[in-house]
Write a structure and sequence with these properties.
Largest interface: A-B, 33 and 33 residues
Protein name (chains A, B): Helix-turn-helix transcriptional regulator
Shape of chain A: globular
Number of helices of chain A: 5
CATH class of chain A: Mainly Alpha
Strand content of chain A: under 5%
Number of strands of chain A: 0
InterPro entries (chains A, B): Cro/C1-type_HTH, Lambda_DNA-bd_dom_sf, TransReg_Diox_bact_type
Order of helices and strands of chain A: HHHHH
Helix content of chain A: 55-70%
Domain HTH cro/C1-type (chains A, B): 9-63
CATH architecture of chain A: Orthogonal Bundle
Distance between the termini of chain A: 23 Å
Oligomer: homodimer
CATH topology of chain A: 434 Repressor (Amino-terminal Domain)
Keywords (chains A, B): DNA-binding
Chain lengths: 75, 75
């Protein structure tokens, strides 16, 4: 799931022509942390995800579409 | 935003007739923490949000729909 979130963020950032440092700054995080999120090696906090989404002119909900593989639910 | 996420979770839980302890257990968290999430006094981590969504037979993306008030984006 982390990889998919990272990919969605990265694809959107590239489509907007933003650099990682520019996005990191707008999302009030560090370039290093932003790189790890995009690489799928870190989950952003929900608050950071909201800030990333806003900086990418989208929503956290949009960034998470299709990220979850079908998981078991309470019977 | 926290209130809206909590409300979405609570509405969905009630629609499925689940108790807070039952949902908390399925989402591998505590009843107390689940109560705070629903009350909007705590943000779940992204991982916990995924587990809550799975336990509610929905997705994190769905639970976050409409949660964000329009925020500034990078110009």
């Amino acid at each position: 799931m982390m990889q998919r979130i990272g990919k969605h963020i990265r694809d959107r950032r590239l489509a907007l022509g933003l650099s990682v440092p520019r996005l990191a700054n707008a999302a009030e995080t560090t370039t290093r942390y932003m790189e790890m999120i995009e690489a799928g090696s870190r989950y952003p906090s929900l608050m950071t995800l909201f800030r990333i989404a806003a900086a990418l002119d989208t929503t956290a909900s949009e960034l998470l579409v299709g990220v979850e593989a079908p998981l078991a639910s309470v019977g």
